[in-house]
Amino acid sequence: MTRSKLRLTTAIAAIGLASSLAFTGTAQADYPEQDIRLIIPYGPGGATDIIFRLISQEAEQYLGESIVPVNMAGAGATLGSRNVKDADPDGYTLLGSHDTIALSKLAGTVDYSFDAFEPIALLTQTINIPTAHANHEVQSADEIADYVRENPGQVRFSMIPSSTDHFFWAQFFQEAGIDMADVRLVGYPDTGEQVSALLAEEIDFAMFNLPSGGSFFEEGTFRPLAIAHPERLESMPDVPTLRELGIEMDHSTSRGIFAPKGTPQEIQDTIAEAYGQALENEEVQSRIENEFGSVVRFLAGDDYLEFLDENEAALSAAAENIDFQN
């Protein structure tokens, strides 16, 4: 090849590369230009589904394109997360999920966790509540340890295997000084069956929250034993926090938005900003707090990464006390 042809070829290649970079930059600047799919790894109608739909409906007003929720339940909520993990990192496929991402890895269901995604923003937390039936002699969470010591091997705690409440009790036993060998963990397929079991007094304790247990707390059928949150809930001002009772733990279902690994930072920031603005809407805040017993907590960027790291570390410590084969 002659020197002049080589210069021409190099110049064409440089123009092509510059055009490609310019196109990529323009595409990011113009984002979004089409509907965005939000994969929700649960079926329709539950708290996770409704909360993400509520906030996304408001967030899309700031994006100028629709956010289309897609329910993709199955495989312990990993069908939906895997779909997003393997999607193109272009900002048009997002995941709306929670702690189950880390729980699934710790339980051995999948080989990936939060770090397989670009965490966009934490949106809400649903505060969990250790609960007894109204006829139980235990009046508050700090009495559970003594009750177990007085009745070794007989005290029944309900949980859904490898789910949030399974980890809640493992962490609670660790912080309260309870030997897991002295308790009976009773597995149920879903929250509804746990509610029925506690109503029938077939179990001693369960972990609920306001969406699942609020009406029973109001009517006095169930007794909230503590709030697993740094502050008392406004709707239950007389119920102390676990920390007030000397049990140093907080526990909640923390819902956030995730994108495929490699999604450009500019797109991540655009999505986070839209959801942050959505959460400033007072009607949205009111519904989250009053209808779903949750609190708005918006974290993005490094703050959310730090939160996820701390959350996963706490879950990993609890997992050491769990036999996932039983």
TrEMBL record:
<dbReference type="InterPro" id="IPR005064">
    <property type="entry name" value="BUG"/>
</dbReference>
<dbReference type="Pfam" id="PF03401">
    <property type="entry name" value="TctC"/>
</dbReference>
<protein>
    <submittedName>
        <fullName>Tripartite tricarboxylate transporter substrate binding protein</fullName>
    </submittedName>
</protein>
<keyword id="KW-0732">Signal</keyword>
<feature type="signal peptide">
    <location>
        <begin position="1"/>
        <end position="29"/>
    </location>
</feature>
<dbReference type="InterPro" id="IPR042100">
    <property type="entry name" value="Bug_dom1"/>
</dbReference>
<comment type="similarity">
    <text>Belongs to the UPF0065 (bug) family.</text>
</comment>
